[in-house]
Amino acid sequence: MNSVQRLLPLATLLILSNSTVVHAGSVTMGGVSEELAINRAMAKVPQGKSVTDTSCEVIGTSGNSSTYRCTVTWE
Prior knowledge:
alpha+beta
């Protein structure tokens, strides 16, 4: 069996699996509060897409204030 014949099943599997992959997306936005950052990110989710995850992190700034950076993921 030559190398092309051995690779053919793998190549076929890769082609078929790529045609059925759900393409997810994400957007990251910032704000002075977690609620504001999430709302800004949610506004960027394409219509008809389902949100699958929301995560936020606190970003320290000068002084005692903080800002938030939140990422919303959809599929």
